[in-house]
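just leaving the lab so this will be short. below you get a single protein, a line of residues and a line of whole numbers that encode the local backbone shape. id like you to explain what the token line says about the fold, in plain words if possible. thanks a lot i owe you, the record is right below:

…
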Amino acid sequence: MNPATPALNRRAEEREPPARSAASRSRLWLDFVNTDISTPTPRGDLVRSFEALLSWLSSRGAIDEERAAGIARRAKLQPAAAAASLVDARRVRASLRALAERGALSQRIQDDAVVEINRVLGRSAGTRRVDRHTDGSLVRAFVPTGDAFAGLMIPIVESAADSLVSEELPRVRRCADPTCQRVFYDATRNGLRRWCDMGTCGNRAKAARHRAKSKLHPFPELPER
């Protein structure tokens, strides 16, 4: 066997799945957790305002454009309700980050997340339906009745609930790069993926190892005569 084969296989298994794959859409909760990847810098938060939250949900297909436009109009008429909805979204996100990072190792964190998920699911009345996604695939949708803001987190928490029920948490983890806060689902065959993206964090780690090795061995070894 070619000695380079294991390394090639490992690199192939660590590649990031396509961003718009079905698996990516079905784990919407992980995408939502990653909206705070630049914290504690407030401007780095992708949901730093209600308008940004609405835009993010729309861009991920969690709400359709017509509903997003209607909620945006309602937010201008009810700014306090929109602000409260944003606070609630961040609360949900904090709970789901704990679940993504440590849920596989802690029953308490799982239970806390379940309480949060059920809180969101229990307060919203509406209609569940199947809609056609922009790429042609079918997705589940929730259309709330009454409070326009109450159902915004439904797609997020339902996605997290799917991962819990499917027992996926052992393959959900935070990137091994200590400077990166992204979480991801490890879809590799061997379940040993460490980086959110081999092209960025993985390459930085390889470069760091190379620099450390160069410091230990600053001069190339000369061949024996």
About this structure: The chain is about 50% helix and 10% strand. The CA atoms of residues 5 and 11 lie 10 Å apart.
